[in-house]
Amino acid sequence: MISVGQTFIEKHTLVQEEFNRFAAxxxxxxxxxVDPEFSxxxxxxxxxxxxxxxxxxxxxxxATHFQNASQVSQDLMFSAPSFVGEEITISARVLDANANTMxxxxxxxxxxxxxxxxxxxxxxxx
Length: 126
Prior knowledge:
single chain; alpha+beta
């Protein structure tokens, strides 16, 4: 049984091959995501994860830990970039729940503690 306050945490190391595959699938081949030489000359200094790739990692955590639920809404804010080579922490914390729905806070944290993605999702209990 899932309860209010319960938190699920997973770690993931971002690698360039993932960025490249996501770019191929999504069509977002902006060089900031896929060209390490280009990215090295930007203010970021290295390639940056696609925001929607980070969101897909959040979706994976939700699917793993809330198997009897389907996502009906998601609010997202990308407050800081996440970079190739970083080990990010993905967390999903249950804010409230009833027989039909759950509200879950979703956060991706960078190794330095900075939040890269923050959001809230509503899950329908199936």
